[in-house]
Amino acid sequence: MLDVAFETLDGRLLLMERFTEPEPEHDLILHHLKMELPPQKPPRIYSRQRRK
User: 32: helix, coil or strand?
Assistant: First the structure.
C-alpha cells in the first residue's frame, strides 16, 4: 500500500491511499488462500487549515 499526495492549484491536498496490483504469482497465492485485496479507498481532499 502507498499514499499518493498532490497539492491542488487552490492549495488543498489530494491524498489517495492505493494498493498496488499483485504480480500474477502473488495473485495465484491470494487465490489459493481464498483472499482478496480490499477495494481502493476514494481520494480525500484536505484544506490547508486542516493540515497545519
Answer: helix
**44-46 vs 13-18, strand pairing mode:** antiparallel
Angle at 19 between CA 29 and CA 21, to 5 degrees: 50
Strand partners, 5: 15
Q: Which pLDDT band, with edges at 50, 70 and 90, does 52 fall under?
A: very low
User: Cell numbers of 9, please?
Assistant: 492549484
CB atoms within 10 A of CB 13: 15
Domain borders along the chain are: 2-51
Arithmetic mean of pLDDT, 15-40 = 90
* Three cell numbers written together for 7: 497539492
pTM of the model: 0.51
